[in-house]
Amino acid sequence: MAQLVDPREEQVRHLLEVGRQPPVPADLADTAAVHGHRLLRRRRALRLALLLLLLLATAALLGWLVTADPWTAGTPETTPPSYGW
């Protein structure tokens, strides 16, 4: 009985036997570390900016609550004044 050979499997076997690997840049790890540090700095800055924005929004809300006093009922002005009766 003849075995059927998959051409893709043969190509993979050939590539593994030849052993040629693409060259890797010598400074790949250093470049990756620099990019990683830059990414961490950006995330930290974004987190700090969002935290400051949240604090400013909270301070603005508290300032509005203190000055506007929204929880007390205002004067009832549902009916217009009646003049000339």
Mean pLDDT: 87
Helix content: 55-70%
Q: Separation of termini?
A: 116 Å
Beta-strand content estimate: under 5%
How many E strands?
A: 0
Question: How do the SSEs run, as a string of H and E?
Answer: HH
Low-pLDDT segments, ≥5 res? none
What's the structural blueprint in terms of helices and strands?
Elements: H1 7-18, H2 28-68
Report on the structure:
The protein has helices at 7-18, 28-68. The chain is mainly α and 85 residues long. The longest helix is centred in the middle third of the chain and has 41 residues, at 28-68.
Question: Quick gist of this model?
Answer:
With 85 residues, this protein is mainly alpha-helical.
List keywords for this structure.
about 80 residues; mainly alpha; 2 helices; about 60% helix; elongated; membrane; transmembrane; transmembrane helix
